[in-house]
Amino acid sequence: MKRALLSGRGLWWVACPLLLCVGVAFIQLQLLERDSGLDTALNWVTRCAWLGQDWPGYRSRLLGIATIELLGGNVRAFLTVTFVSLFFGGTLAWYLGGAGGFGVYHAAFALVAWPWFAPWDMFRPVFFTAFVIFAVELRPWWWFVLLFALAIVDHQSAMYMGLFMVLKGGLAGRRALLFAGFSCLLMGFAYMWLMQHSDWRYFGFSAQSFGYHTDYADTHFSENLHHLFREGAYVPCIYGVIMLTIATVMVRGQLALGLTFAALLASLTVVGILSETRVYLTFLPLLVLAASPPASAPPQQSALLDSSREATESMVAEL
Fold this sequence. Notes:
Elements: H1 2-6, H2 8-35, H3 38-50, H4 63-70, H5 75-112, H6 124-136, H7 141-154, H8 159-172, H9 175-196, H10 216-229, H11 234-251, H12 255-271, H13 284-291, H14 299-318
């Protein structure tokens, strides 16, 4: 195996996908730089999430803007971190769905990442692609906990990873995953409450806030219904594709995963802004999974079947 990887042909098969991931990430970056107002988004998010001057509800979304600040706090740093996230997101999409999944990921990204792209939109599709991989491959509970610990610092949508852990743990009888899911949900709520209600000067948070309210459902739900049923076809088409994708994943046996993304879509409908299509970035790995051919069995189950088959054959040989 090692000799094959070290051979010219093996290196070529490894290098080609990586080079393609780099090239397509660079193209996506050029599109974002041209169409998505990165300078305005960076200034707005810095004021809201990092300095805490306006919307304290966004103070828990620290990972993206903190990384940018560490690299200089300018648009170049924003572009650098975005490029890295695009590369890793595409690489994970290739791992999940092959070359076709890679194409679906970047095509969907190009459709929904405009006309507004914020620093807390960079890592979200990467984290959720890793999350879908863990779910499909039946990774141990602590894989999900580690991923959740990173993702919750980036965006509150990570709470749905905790919801999946609860659903999957309950449906599959995996008690460790179930308890880990409840723990993640509790810790996530505690983290968001602490960050959103803090005026710690260590973080540069200000006690004053303007323009923030929590009655999102009073305004956004009616606006979302208007966008879905009365204004244009772009948002309804994206929404319909996502609903079809969720149904496809559930029919293929990923019930807990489908229910998780259905709950996420329902919450976006009530309190999100569906016309800001960047909110659909979370669903990119689900599109990749639905577009890829269904696997006969997850890797861990295949390994168990192979080991049991070998044991049976050895017993028959001894008899």
